[in-house]
Amino acid sequence: MDEAQSDFYSFSAPLPDGSVVSMAQFRGRVLLIVNTASQCGFTPQYAGLEALYRSYRPRGFEVLAFPSNQFGGQEPGTDREIGTFCRHSFGVSFPIFAKADVNGPAALPLFRYLQQRKRGFLGLRAIRWNFTKFLVDRQGNVVARYSSAKDPKALGNAIEALLAQP
User: 136-164, pLDDT tens digit by residue?
Assistant: First the structure.
């Protein structure tokens, strides 16, 4: 699929059980899409992501986590191990997709699309590290990209503003 011509809702991604979720399932919701890792200095951000999810989900907000082992080998576990770790260590209840590449030729097409829509530091397209975050509005527009260092708690105002829009 050509990411340049695609609509956000035309993408899909696999869950750990092998089933595939269409992004169309999230139409009309505000999304925070994050590439994650279990053995990273930013891993405690799972707690902040879960707090955002619990706070805003009733109003139409979702967090979608995509574990990736592309940055320092910091996500070596299986999909099952990752899910267990996230639930037990941080009480994560938002969707955690199957482990995948987010950069390079084998990257999920969804991530190539996100990178094309919002470039990072110095205009770079590639994701530089774990816990890069993309904010998507209710219409499927990628409206912001945040670095790994951006604390999820600091995203509340941006999420609130998007939730206030029809």
Answer: 999 999 999 999 999 999 999 999 999 99
